[in-house]
Amino acid sequence: MKLNKNNPRLIIVQLLYSYSLNSQKLLFDFKNPYKRFIKKMCNGVIENDSVLEKKLIEFLDQKFDIKKFEVIFTLILKSAIYEIFFYKKTPFKVVIDEYLNISKMFLNDKQKNIVNAVLDKIAKTT
Question: How many whole angstroms separate alpha carbon 62 and alpha carbon 52?
């Protein structure tokens, strides 16, 4: 499945990645029917970063060190975790499918498998 460049979750990951590089204010100067959702999600992920990191570590296999993960990799997972546990307006299966599709754009096969395993574990607990 090819993602549309206006996909709100793709935009969320891109904005968070940009924010992680320069830690400046997020820029929401674009048109998108999901702009409010995008803004809430981005701000929620940033404001709850330490909680999301703890949740991510909780669902990760013990052999992985989160500090060694690429930024985009952790942002995809944190965004998905935030939406599943804190936003709760979209069925978690849809959220998982969306973030798995996004991971195909940015991650290698091993990383995609880890994202899939983590989100699968989360799905079993919700």
Answer: 17
Tokens representing residue 109 in the block: 């096969």
Cα gap 84→81, rounded to integer Å: 5
| Tokens standing for residue 40 | 């809430």
- What length is written for the chain? 126
User: What pLDDT digit, counting tens, does each position of 14-45 carry?
Assistant: 999 999 988 777 878 888 899 999 999 999 99
Extract the tokens encoding 72.
């985009």
Q: Which domains does the chain have, with CATH numbers?
A: 8-125 (1.10.940.10)
Measured CA to CA, the distance from residue 95 to residue 89 in angstroms comes to 10
